[in-house]
Amino acid sequence: MFKKILIANRGEIALRIIRTCREMGIKTVAVYSKADSESLHVRFADEAVCIGPPPSRESYLNIPRIIAAAEITNADAIHPGYGFLSENAEFSRVCTEYGIKFIGASESMIHSMGDKSSAKDTMKKAGVPTIPGSDGLLSSWEEGISLAKEVGYPVIIKATAGGGGRGMRVIHEEAEFKKLWDDAQRESAAAFGNDAMYLEKFIEEPRHIEIQIMGDSTGKVCHLSERDCSIQRRHQKLVEETPSPIITQEIRDKMGKAAILGAESIGYEGAGTIEFLVDKYGNFYFMEMNTRIQVEHPITEEVTDFDLIKEQIKVAAGIPISGRSYYPQRFAMECRINAEDPANGFRPSPGKIKNLHIPGGRGIRVDSHIYSGYTIPPNYDSMIAKLIAVGQTREEVLTRMKRALQEFVIEGIKTTIPFHIRLMDDPSFKEGKFTTKFLESFDFSGL
Fold first, then answer.
1. CATH number for position 164
2. Which of 167, 185, 201 is the last residue of a domain?
3. Mean pLDDT of 390-418
């Protein structure tokens, strides 16, 4: 087992990893930018190293500085959390070169799954259902039009290096193909330095369902069932739940087997998710793979009684998983509490927290790094807390979540709490009738 782990991240996920390491008797090293000097992950780690000024590229994305911090503190492993360098193949490679265990996917695994086009091809060869579309990248918009005629409109074109909704366009008819193709290529080139595109059939009324998987160095993979991540705005998740209101045990078994098949085909090691789109008929199609721990991992932990961070560390240390899969024994939901103003287009709202009350009680978990007097910096992602509610039924979770949201007091900044409270009362949401487009018609007025 590792003696000391450096956490190459910040905020709540860094604190979450520190807690598990403490329970496992492993020393921790926090790295931080000057903007995060007062953050709780710095306070609670055994050691802390400042790695640069507030901009991410000069601190949390600066590989040489993070490696130097690991070397001077004699850390024998690095946990990247999510975001930042967690899916950076170069970082994984450099860690290996310096003899530091990267608690995540290998360079080759990140490469094979990081490029959406090659990931789809890999999964297709493994027998995982994929969305009808191009076999690899398109050479031109003319080729795209020809393929769209075969697949049938609507179609969606995607940047192979894309993410967060950038470099994507839905095309409903041939007349608009060329313009939207050009728009998507320009956006992708500007954001990612890569304008390569591929095409898929556009799935109408989709649900975004992901399967949590865990693989070890022996080639074994298990799954921990699904999470429904359909409540999202501009491809950014806001609410997640498990089990999904639309997934039957039959579909769950099929998706779980498909996820294991895909992960085993690349010899996947560590925590990851296989992301699917599910249509209204229950057909599911591979979308992408995330080769890291997810923001929403706590709800899976709560319904399976399985510590995913601990398992990540054990697997990275060469300890095999049990090999069996896990199914939800309860219901759980997570609301992402962001420092944003939902009444004004979710505009970021950094600043000082003047007063704070964290909700509690039966079935409530809060993962957060904030405290009264803490100043939220403007330099990073706006998520400041994750509120998790657990219950024996989905109805119990909804009422418990609303109660906890009403108890959650954060004064001094705007947050997404008012939006979540209204969502808990929405009739369609309460009935589990929603798609990834649900928030496009949601009433944000008066929040």
1. 3.30.1490.20
2. 201
3. 98
Packing angle of the helix pair 308-316, 297-304 (nearest 10 deg)? 100
Please report the DSSP string for 352-417 in residue order. Answer: E--EEE---STTEEEEE---TTPEEPTTS--EEEEEEEEESSHHHHHHHHHHHHHH-EEESS--SH
* Same-domain status, 165 and 43: no
Cβ-based burial of 99 (10 A; exposed 0-12, middle 13-18, buried ≥19): exposed
pLDDT digits (tens, 9 = 90+) for 73-115: 999 999 999 999 999 999 999 999 999 999 999 999 998 887 8
- Give me the number of domains the chain comprises: 3
Same domain assignment for residues 192 and 219: no
CATH of the domain at 351: 3.30.470.20
Q: Which residues are catalytic?
A: 292
Q: Residue 97 class from Cβ within 10 Å (0-12 exposed, 13-18 middle, 19+ buried)?
A: exposed
Question: Are residues 303 and 405 both part of a single domain?
Answer: yes
From 201, 219, 245, give the residue that closes a domain. Answer: 201
pLDDT of 315:
97
Q: Going along 68-173, which residue ranges are E strands?
A: 77-79, 101-102, 155-163, 166-171
31 and 163 in a single domain? The answer is: no
Name the amino acid, one letter, at 237.
K
| Residue 72 forms part of a structural domain | yes
- Partnered with residue 28 across adjacent β-strands are 5
pLDDT at 204: 84
Phi-psi bin for 43: left (phi > 0), alpha (psi -120 to 50), beta?
alpha
Q: Which amino acid is at 197?
A: M
| Number of other CB atoms surrounding residue 248 within 10 Å | 11
**CA angle, 432 then 386 then 166, to 5°:** 75
